[in-house]
TrEMBL record:
GO terms for molecular function: N-acylglucosamine-6-phosphate 2-epimerase activity. It comes from Meiothermus hypogaeus. NCBIfam families: PRK01130.1. Pfam families: NanE. Pathway: Amino-sugar metabolism; N-acetylneuraminate degradation; D-fructose 6-phosphate from N-acetylneuraminate: step 3/5. The keyword Nucleotidyltransferase does not apply. This is N-acylglucosamine-6-phosphate 2-epimerase. InterPro entries: Aldolase_TIM, NanE, RibuloseP-bd_barrel. Converts N-acetylmannosamine-6-phosphate (ManNAc-6-P) to N-acetylglucosamine-6-phosphate (GlcNAc-6-P). Its EC number is 5.1.3.9. The gene is nanE_2.
Length: 196
């Protein structure tokens, strides 16, 4: 992961989003780029897994994340409420909060609760948000119009045109995951594009 982050930096990335204290510590050692840290933890009986509680947030902050990203959807949470979690990340860790949402209302609520950035990460991943084929441009547009904090476009970006469109719509940054980091899916896309 550190080598991949360094490659992304050399390629001109302006930040790294990474998962887990181990990877974040390794990435912190090789770059001064801002790190958006998440801590994926699956807990019995809960759908929320992106930094679901304060303990998960604290681990990645201590590992060197500059910003803490978390699931800010309306789904049930295992420990702290969303309001408590955002408050604790601010007061105890002194880090900004990057709220991954799946629709406009979740973005508005997260901002009311103090989130510093809103991202479209979870659009298409909650039972109540329909999955668009590519990025959810409608949600980017709606969030930019209404939330009043920087909007980060994330989820299913594969082409330069899609990235340009997100910036045209007012996104402050675009997070590209699979299309840069996952050789299996990159290969699959080429293979599926070849007529046989
Ligand atoms: C839904 C979920 O768990 N998303 C995760 C969030 O951190 C990652 O698995 C995604 O790769 C990331 O959001 C970037 O999206 P994409 O890989 O589509 O460019």
């Amino acid at each position: 992961m550190a080598a991949m982050a360094l490659a992304a930096q050399q390629g001109g990335a302006s930040g790294i989003r990474a998962n887990g204290a181990g990877d974040i510590r390794a990435i912190r050692a090789v770059t001064h780029l801002p790190i958006i840290g998440i801590n994926k933890r699956w807990m019995e009986g809960y759908e929320v897994y992106i930094t679901p509680d304060f303990a998960a947030a604290k681990e990645v902050a201590e590992a060197g994340a500059d910003v803490i990203a978390l699931d800010a959807t309306a789904r049930p949470r295992p420990r702290e409420s969303l309001a408590e979690l955002i408050g604790l990340i601010h007061t105890e860790l002194g880090k900004p909060v990057f709220a991954d949402v799946s629709n406009l209302n979740e973005g508005l609520v997260a901002v009311q609760l103090g989130a510093d950035y809103i991202a479209t990460t979870l659009s298409g991943y909650t039972p109540y948000s329909p999955r668009t084929r590519g990025p959810d441009f409608d949600l980017i547009r709606q969030l930019v119009a209404d939330v009043g904090v920087p909007v980060i476009a994330e989820g299913r970006f594969w082409t330069l045109e899609e990235v340009s469109k997100a910036f045209d719509l007012g996104a402050s940054a675009v997070v590209v995951g699979t299309a840069i980091t996952n050789p299996r899916e990159i290969t699959r896309r080429f293979v599926q594009g070849v007529p046989v």
